[in-house]
Amino acid sequence: MALNPHPNQNSKFALSSKYQGLEDNIWLSLSPSDSDNVVNLGQGFPDYNPAVEIVKNLAKACEPDASYLNHQYARAFGHVRLVKALAQLYGKLLNRVIEPMTEVLVTVGAQGALFYSIMANVGEGDEVIVIEPAFDCYETMIRLAGGIPVFIPLLPSSHTSSNDGTSGSWTLDMETLTKLFNSKTKAIILNTPNNPLGKVFTRQELLIIGNLCKEFNVLIISDEVYEWIVYDENEHIRIAGLEDFWDRTITIGSAGKSFSLTGWKLGWAYAPAHLMFNLRIAHQNCTYLCQTPEQEALAITIEEQIERLGTPESYFYKMVQELTRKRGMMIKSLQEVGVTPVIPQGGYFVMANWRGLENKIDLSKETDKDEDFKFVRWLCREKKLLGIPPSAFYSEGHKQLAKNFIRFNFYKKDETLVEADKILSTFK
């Protein structure tokens, strides 16, 4: 646990008990500075500029003759033009009418939408099912809300015939999942495509999850920030669009992941009005609103993309074509040195089993508790290549499932991936 570097002898000013135990943060401890001279395949952002038209839309929103309102407070629950664009986009995808003013909320990043979804719906003693691997903030937020996280891991198939080397071969034990549901279960958090694994949940898997939620009257929080990044013949299916699951589903999206704009820190949620009411109350008593110029620019961008959906002119189509090639570069670099990747069906991360390098490294002096942390720190220090230890995405009882893996982000310039390949090739 991280210790306060500026201890205060006055115990009255100690960290509030609700935050105690949450001092460590993987993203802070493994975030290199510009001067570290490290090839950074760790955190989830590209190292080059987003599409020119998106940047131009922001410039347009800030031009001297643009509306003065672009520089003033936005509507609390989302800039009107943006919520209308989001409602139109997802209404088209789900084949339903989504009311922009009551069923869409714009937040400070997708993490803001997750925070409101959990804080506004989970109370003391409520159980929330978390499918692992899972983004680390899920557990933190559930505990802050007074809830109890209940974990179930995706597991790789032990049958050779069904393990094709992709993230799709990692599945839930549905019998175990069923047993987790009870009268105390308030919600389940679903992440598809999954980070860090890249698994895209199938229609059958989503139907089983959704029907369990119906049977036990459970809320579905569907984190779909990587919704546009799906490879090969795989399909991203929105659980809110299946059967009658809409009435119990909050779906979360991200400008950072959808348009490579992580610095804009804009996310959103869409849900039926009776669920969105809860999120709005949490939002209005926290950040209250988001920055206006970026919302205006994002609205313009989404309006443009709605017309291009399903065509080669679509930004999303072009992004997937680009990332498919980069995924191939990353996989080839890993396989050539005996590191076995789990080929992702979606997202822009690859989990890879590093045990093939075990006889070429020395972790005896590493002090971290978990094996994957030891390898990540050694690789960063000795080889100047940064990845992320996937055990950060697991609860304490399941961290051993990640001990042989490292996560790399391949949404990087080709030059960066070539540099990473050169480092990996030293293991040959």
Provide a concise account of the structure shown:
The chain has 13 helices and 14 strands. It is of the alpha/beta class. Strand 3 (127-132), helix 5 and strand 4 (148-153) form a beta-alpha-beta unit.
SSE topology:
Elements: H1 26-29, E1 39-40, H2 52-61, H3 80-94, E2 104-108, H4 109-119, E3 127-132, H5 137-144, E4 148-153, E5 155-156, E6 170-171, H6 174-180, E7 185-191, H7 203-215, E8 219-223, E9 249-254, H8 255-259, E10 266-270, H9 273-284, H10 292-308, H11 315-335, E11 340-342, E12 349-353, H12 371-383, E13 385-386, E14 405-409, H13 414-425
Parallel strand pairs: 1-13, 3-4, 3-7, 7-8, 8-9
Antiparallel strand pairs: 2-10, 5-6, 9-10, 11-12, 12-14
Helix pairs in contact: 2-10, 3-10, 4-5, 4-9, 11-13
Note down, in words, how this protein is organized.
The protein is of the alpha/beta class and 428 residues long. The chain has helices at 26-29, 52-61, 80-94, 109-119, 137-144, 174-180, 203-215, 255-259, 273-284, 292-308, 315-335, 371-383, 414-425, and strands at 39-40, 104-108, 127-132, 148-153, 155-156, 170-171, 185-191, 219-223, 249-254, 266-270, 340-342, 349-353, 385-386, 405-409. Helix 3 runs parallel beside helix 10 (292-308). The protein is globular. The model has no long low-confidence stretch (mean pLDDT 94).
